[in-house]
Amino acid sequence: MGIIGREKEIAELYQLYDSGKSEFVAVYGRRRVGKTFLVDESLKGKITFRHAGLSPVDKENSKNSLKYQLRQFYISLQQHGMKRSKCPTSWMEAFFLLSQFLESHDTGKRQVVFLDELPWLDTPKSGFITAFEGFWNSWACHRDNLMLIVCGSANSWMLNNLVNNHGGLYGRITWEIKLHPFKLSECELFYKSHGLNMTRYDIVQSYMILGGIPYYMRYLRKEFSLAQNLDALFFAEDARLRDEYNRLFASVFSNPEEMKRIVELLATRHSGFTRKELIDLGHFKDSGYFSKMLMALIASDFIQTYVPFGKSKRDLMYKLTDHFCLFYLRFVENRTELDPEFWMHNVNAPAINSWRGIAFEEVCFNHVYQIKAALSILGVSSTQSPLIIKGDGDTEGTQIDLIINRKDNVASVCEMKFYNAPFTVNKEYHFKIVQRNNQLAELLPRHASIHNVLVSTYGIKDNEYSGDFQSVVCLDDLFR
């Protein structure tokens, strides 16, 4: 099976392979997003040595983790053809063995060393970083035919210890690749390549749950409907992804339970919380450690920050945006008795329809580029954010899903609607739009215009109120 999408990343790896100088490449991104597959497939048959760290989830005794990591590294060397020798007892010895192995197999052609799940090798008090610095700075960087690729799902570790390192590895990374989840267009290609005949309506629903993560998507079976597949993945007795939530955090963070506390609090409010609200509601200690936890969740693509429209950076909001976590916490977590056909039995239930509406907003936030392209404003400088206007005794509050504030003096006010038919603007909704525009006009400069944009699955039904929207973005536009 070939690679779906990733054209830019593949081209970068090819260019680095042919650069004719030593290269130190860091590849990082959310767990299960396809980093290992990208490297393996792009450089198939060209990797001289590859090794993957042992998962901390599987270790039986943390005191012996260094011993196990070193032994597995030694086994990888032997599997690649190194002559039997003494198993290293430190990372200094391990990287010395690696340099000897590479020298003995050096024919003058490009040598690729691929170290996967690098953060897992850095066990407590192991001296890994010091030895790794020595390997690169003293030996590897001087070999013009060496290409070192390191991968990791613990993005905060990759950023702190490699990309933004201020010690011995400062400025040593020659290239970095952050791999993102698939967009809708890539999901469509992926499903077609796996023989799944899915409408775009269902592909969007799958995105609401699986978030464009190839590892999860590959479990969908072509003989099942989407509802049957979701039951098999989450609600059946042997559901494949039932334990994925806990494994996900345990494999990425050294303090998974604390991280889950933050995520589970963020899951309770769609618009998110300020840092102070998180501390007060979650009873966290206001400290640098808490800030580091938030930054680690951001780096690992679980949460995002945004400044609400018309606010300052002091009002920065933290919001859970990982589709898988949002779905899991809403429908799977803490359910002691799961109906093995829960989704089939509730596919049109009001609670699920309500969730679809909110989840579709997140899908649209992931495809703002496509929305801007449909509006022909890619060339216009702009910022985007949600807006919540609190009501008072006389005026009802309002929430705007997305405002694209443009430098051409237009505010594109986007309303997202996930329906199985064209959306109908009735008289009541018309007056809601009028009231909202009046409230927003008070926050905008006098020279700014308001353009209402409907982002909907199947467009808008033509009637006396459909002209309230200056532009309509349909499902097909999100797939471009």
Structure at a glance:
Helix content is 42%, strand content 16%.
Which terms would index this structure?
480 residues; alpha/beta; Rossmann fold; Arc Repressor Mutant, subunit A; 5-stranded parallel beta sheet; 5-stranded mixed beta sheet; 21 helices; 16% strand
Task: Indicate the topology.
Layout lengths: L6 H11 L5 E7 L5 H8 L4 E6 L12 H15 L11 H14 L6 E6 L1 H4 L6 H11 L7 E7 L2 H9 L11 E5 L4 H10 L6 H11 L3 H4 L8 H10 L8 H9 L3 H11 L6 E2 H8 L5 H12 L3 E4 L10 E4 L2 H9 L10 H5 L3 H16 L2 H7 L7 E8 L8 E9 L3 E8 L9 H15 L7 E8 L14 E3 L1 H4 L2
Parallel strand pairs: 1-4, 1-5, 2-3, 3-4, 11-12, 12-13
Antiparallel strand pairs: 6-8, 7-8, 9-10, 10-11
Helix pairs in contact: 3-4, 4-6, 7-15, 9-16, 9-18, 12-13
Overall description:
The protein is of the alpha/beta class and 480 residues long. The protein has four domains: 7-179, P-loop containing nucleotide triphosphate hydrolases (Rossmann fold, 3-Layer(aba) Sandwich), CATH 3.40.50; 184-242 and 332-362, no CATH class; 245-331, Winged helix-like DNA-binding domain superfamily/Winged helix DNA-binding domain (Arc Repressor Mutant, subunit A, Orthogonal Bundle), CATH 1.10.10.10; 370-478, Trna Endonuclease, Chain: A, domain 1 (3-Layer(aba) Sandwich). It contains 21 helices and 13 strands. The protein has helices at 7-17, 35-42, 65-79, 91-104, 118-121, 128-138, 155-163, 184-193, 200-210, 214-217, 226-235, 244-252, 256-266, 275-282, 288-299, 323-331, 342-346, 350-365, 368-374, 427-441, 475-478, and strands at residues 23-29, 47-52, 111-116, 146-152, 175-179, 273-274, 303-306, 317-320, 382-389, 398-406, 410-417, 449-456, 471-473. Strands 2-3-4-1-5 form a five-stranded parallel β-sheet, sandwiched between helices. Helix 9 (200-210) packs across helix 16 (323-331). The radius of gyration is 25 Å and the shape is elongated. The model has no long low-confidence stretch (mean pLDDT 92).
